Amino acid sequence: MSRTSLSQCNSNGTLQECLACEKKAIWVAVYANFTLAIFKAFIGIVSGSMAMLGDALFSFKDFIASLVGVIGIRVSGKPADEQHPYGHGKVEFVALFLISMGLLLATLFLLFHSLKGIWHCSQGFGRAPKLVVFGAALISVVANYKLVQYLSCVGDRQKSHAIRANTRQNHSGALSSIMVAVAILGARLGYVFLDPLVALVEAVCLLFMGRDMFLSALKGLFDSAAPAATVERIESVARIVPGVRKVAKIVVRQQGQGLWIEMMIKIDPDLTHQEGYLIGLHVKESILATFGNKTTVNVSFEPYMP
Questions:
Q1: In which band, very low, low, confident or very high, does the pLDDT at 82 lie, cut at 50, 70 and 90?
Q2: Which residues of 56-73 are buried (b: 16+ CB within 10 A; e: fewer)?
Q3: Which domains can be identified in the chain, with CATH numbers?
Q4: Rounded to the nearest 10 degrees, how much is the dihedral formed by the CA atoms of 140, 145, 146, 152?
Q5: Distance CA 64, CA 101 (A)
Q6: pTM of the predicted model as reported, rounded to 2 decimal places
């Protein structure tokens, strides 16, 4: 997708066109990361490179992030209905919880075998992986950075948090592939311990990333509160709306890729109910304009009594 078409979508396109643009970018990330994961896993198994297998897990982690993004757009973004009056936001967190568990188990397997490989190298039983791994690592670096450029373009134009998150994930995947390329060159020069050592470093990094995914899923499933800075920003948006005397109460929680906001505002006691309703509507529209259409806002009002 060209930068021109993205610009048109951002400035002149309808909401449906912009969502279609976002969906396309997420699907590109899903297919690309899945292909890279399978390709690198195959090369790692054939060549005997644990570092490449670790790199395959990085691509699998990127695939997870992309897949959860698809779930967020296609399912979590659905409006509330009679069977789901509070929307579908938790579907994204359920998927993230299950997949992060699988990633952590695979990472523990890699951690065990990388330590075992380092031990074998220290005993003189290690061997250098085949040189084909070096070429595969270079292909992975180029593919990841091309994907990063594309997702960065779409994410910046669309102001999409999901796509920006995928961009960061793929950037770490490119760095992992660079480490693999260096390890293979070193192993071919006689430093065979570099391959399992890089696999160990990758496993440790993946454990921390998997832990963050797992904790993020738990927070979403248990309706964690939004960060204090986000709440303060929402309150400041509401306070500047004409007619709002005070924000009496505000509750904000994460809901998939968006926010669920419940707010009580105070208005002048001499205003009519219709005028109060219009002020509340103005508050809601201001918050949606600031935080996006994936945000759910409920505003109630009552008279201000000094």
A1: low
A2: bbbbbbbbbbbbbbbbbb
A3: 3-221 (1.20.1510.10), 228-303 (3.30.70.1350)
A4: 140
A5: 11
A6: 0.64
